[in-house]
Amino acid sequence: MATEPKKIIIDTDPGVDDAMAILLALRSPEVEVIGLTTIYGNVYTTLATRNALHLLEIAGRTDIPVAEGSHVTITQGTKLRIADFVHGADGLGNQNFHPPKGKPIKQSAADFIVEQANLYPGKITVVALGPLTNIALAIQQDPAFVKNIGQIVILGGAFAVNGNVNPAAEANIFGDPDAADIVFTCGADVVAVGINVTHQVVMTDADRDKLVCSNGKYAQYLCKILEVYFSYHHDAYSTKGVYLHDPTALLVAVNPSLFTYMEGVIRVQTSGITRGLTLLYNKQKRFAEITEWSDKPSVKVAVTVDAPAVVKLFMDRLMDS
Ligand SMILES: O=c1[nH]cnc2c1ncn2[C@@H]1O[C@H](CO)[C@@H](O)[C@H]1O
């Protein structure tokens, strides 16, 4: 069974759970990480780039290029919502690591994504873990992109549940709703994993103790940066653990059969009090009138997850590193 690993680009705003997802990807033989692209969200883009380079140095994988992404939203907005209260001011649990030695490549994130999709038509999966600005830019930049890109896996949205920024909106979609609407309706093979799914995947305090006790190099690193993320969850959600948002979405690229999916058309609310709301039309009713969902392409949306299997895979791969 010598199947080629799937080539993935991780578009990321590291971020504690981004760090988890990146390290998990590097420990997953099913995928080959061919690049990291950066975006604002959990931190500003400049810091996201620095953290991406740092994580690759920790992992000994400085062969993987980092391309810096947009500093503004797709509508040139500069008033960004940064979730440093979830991850620490440095994005990685306030550890104040040394600056990385490496530098990002000259290409922008969107240019890199477009180039790779052209080089390997149908073969690249983008795993988008932050606001969708870079992906929307790639779509706008190259009319052939939606045909060339293999799949876009999106961590984002809150499907038929409350958001985590406010009751309407999930953080990544709220970060750039206009970009999200472009990506969801672009016609590419898109899979969305919302917080209705990731909130089922909890790494408990006991799991963290197991990581602490293991000799895994990546496990040890993660334990250093986890404190802020854990205490935020204890305060905000009264859970005895943290949500594994980004690693869960990454596992859609690694092993899609850990999830079940439905299909439908997703539109994003771009203004008003429900800005950032994701609304899935499941096509069960044929409406008499033309709607804003009519004639838009369908995407896949994760609906259930084998949460124990996801947590186990995450733990096993990080402890065995
Ligand atoms: O309460 C929150 N507010 C803002 N961002 C959050 C919160 N919890 C998690 N994340 C971040 O946003 C993505 C999931 O929506 C995750 O990447 C997580 O790191």
TrEMBL record:
Residue ranges of domain Inosine/uridine-preferring nucleoside hydrolase in the record: 8-311
Localisation: Cytoplasm
Family annotation (InterPro entries): Inosine/uridine_hydrolase_dom, IUNH, Ribo_hydro-like
A molecular function (GO) term: inosine nucleosidase activity
Keywords attached to this entry: Cytoplasm, Glycosidase, Hydrolase
EC number: 3.2.2.2, 3.2.2.3
GO cellular component, as recorded: cytosol
GO biological process: purine nucleoside catabolic process; ribonucleoside catabolic process
Pfam families: IU_nuc_hydro
Catalysed transformations (reactions): inosine + H2O = hypoxanthine + D-ribose; uridine + H2O = D-ribose + uracil; xanthosine + H2O = D-ribose + xanthine
Primary location class: cytoplasm
Family statement: Belongs to the IUNH family.
Entry protein name: Inosine nucleosidase
Source organism of the structure: Citrus unshiu
Lineage of the species this protein comes from: Eukaryota, Viridiplantae, Streptophyta, Embryophyta, Tracheophyta
